[in-house]
Amino acid sequence: MSTSEESLWSGVKGMIGRRRLTLGGHWSFNLRHDPKRLPFVLARYKLAAKMACKGAKVLELGCSEGIGTPILAEFAASYTGVDMDSEAVEAAQQNFAAPNRTFLTDDFLGKTFGSFDAVVSLDVVEHIVPELEDHYFDTVAMNLTETGIAVVGTPSKTSEAYASPMSRAGHVNVFTAEHLMQAMRRVFHNVFPFGINDEVVHTGYAPMCHYVVCVGCNKAATGGRGA
User: Fold this and answer.
1) Is residue 203 predicted with pLDDT exceeding 50?
2) Both ends of the chain: CA-CA distance in Å?
3) How far apart are the C-alpha atoms of 195 and 79, rounded to whole Å?
4) Residues with Cβ < 8 Å from 25, sequence gap 6 or more?
5) 114: helix, coil or strand?
6) Sequence-ordered strand ranges (E) for 18-100
7) Residue 111 pLDDT
8) What does the DSSP 8-state code read for residue 198?
9) Which of 16, 59, 155, 212 is the most exposed place for a label (fewest CB within 10 A)?
10) Looking only at Cα atoms, what is the longest distance across the chain?
């Protein structure tokens, strides 16, 4: 390697720095066994960030290991992530800690963590038993300001036929796009549906969507139904 090349490489290493990420168990497993899942998940976070997070106080319900934190927090005023998995939260803190980021270990159902401009919850509601479904959506709404925006995403019923046995075992509440819209309309007057296939976001034919996202705004009265 020439002197100029050594100097260039030294400069690159200086920019990169010495900090390294140590993934938690969930994402270590995914990258070993299903690496394509990472860009799929990051595409969901990119949609949520574009829809709701710029300049906002952001709450993520079900943050897991914080893999989406850098995207949600990039242009946010602040970020708070909550998850009941203490090991996942520890990984998030180790990898993505910053002065305007907070990670909490808690079962968030029925609890308020402040008044936020945006609440994001991806890949969570399918793990909430149907009897607690309304409680989940009430929790999303009760953590928002009156003008706040919620982004909720979940694998669609269409995708269940292609899911692994492990995924199906954990998916106790599988949603169609219409089911998710109806659930969101109970707590928001305005609900906008999106579909995601792999990394592609669209507003196409809902039964062919492998992943569904609804953006809710203009909160309805608790227990009421939006239009």
Assistant:
1) yes
2) 66
3) 25
4) 87
5) coil
6) 57-61, 78-83
7) 98
8) T
9) 16
10) 70
* Confidence bin at 29 (pLDDT 50/70/90): very high
Beta bridge partners of 151: 120, 215
Reported as a pLDDT band with limits 50, 70 and 90, residue 223 is very low
Which whole-number Å values give the CA distances from 148 to 53, 175, 217, in the listed order? Answer: 10, 24, 6
Tell me the pairing of strands 101-105 and 78-83: parallel
Backbone angles phi and psi of 207, in degrees to 5: -65, -15
Query: Helix or strand or coil: residue 123?
Result: coil
Q: Tokens representing 41?
A: 């998940």
- Asked if residue 152 lies in contact with residue 180, where contact means CB atoms within 8 angstroms, the answer is yes
Read off the pTM.
0.90
pLDDT band for position 106 (cuts 50, 70, 90): very high
**Cα–Cα distance, 41 to 148 (Å, whole number):** 23
3-state SS assignment for residue 193: strand
Q: Are strands 78-83 and 57-61 parallel, antiparallel or unpaired?
A: parallel
* Other residues' Cβ atoms within 10 Å of the Cβ of residue 107: 9
Token representation of residue 154: 């979940």
Residue 2, pLDDT score:
65
Residues 136 and 140: their CA atoms lie apart, in Å, by 6
Residue 227 has a pLDDT of 37
Tokens of 77: 């005023």
